[in-house]
Amino acid sequence: MHAARRGDDAEAGDADRVVLRAEVRLLLMPSLRTATEADPSAIRPMTHRKRVLFVCVENANRSQMAEAFARIHGGVGVEAFSAGSRPSGVVNPKAIRFMAELGYDLAAHGSKSLDDIEGEFDAVVTMGCGDSCPWVPAKRREDWALPDPRHMDDDAYRAVRDEISARVRALLASL
Asked: Which domain of life is it from (predicted)?
């Protein structure tokens, strides 16, 4: 009977260590904290991470927000990237402002080139850039053909942002 209790205690101790490791990861990686506070199930084993890439010409608005939402909605189960075929070099201040409304700091992102992206992806999503986006190896490809919100008023910009969030959530659920 004593041995059985020690076995139960050992199993409980293992579970406590797993939870503690997850909590330490959250403390050390603030970007994970936001995602897991919104959805505690976002803590998943690191071995099953899905790789997703969001592409638009400038990598300044839509693809940046999509990358952010993939990190928010996917948590540690997703490796999210964004890039542009002709990156502008900056993230649009409106994108930064409207993501800040949701508690996400997009100012930490940078506009990146597709030339800097390597490897295969579970999904590559173009944001309506058509032929400007070169081929990138992926198990799944989608073109969302979203309007570029760069010159939109605040309400229209938020509508595009919220549409991107919904589409990212659906994409991740289907992978």
From this structure: Bacteria
